[in-house]
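Supplementary notes for students who missed Thursday's class. We covered one full example, reproduced here. Read the sequence, then the structure, then the short commentary at the end.
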Amino acid sequence: MARTALGIGVRELAELAKVSPDTIARLERGEALRERTVEDIRIALENGGVIFLDDGSTADGGPGVRLRKGNP
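Structure (token representation):
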């Protein structure tokens, strides 16, 4: 959801996070990754303008994402 909100592809996110495109695909399939790898991907998304919303921050009470103001 966060990658789509930024309008970037798997390869672009992989490059930003300095991981392989396969790693991004594995994350999106819900496979387990090392904690540091997930953190690198999260940082890349946050640097792009994504804000991760914790449980309870959305209308239905679940997790979600939104873009920082000023992002396209």
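Commentary. The mean pLDDT is 89. The domain at 2-67 is CATH 1.10.260.40 (434 Repressor (Amino-terminal Domain)). If anything here is unclear, bring it to office hours.
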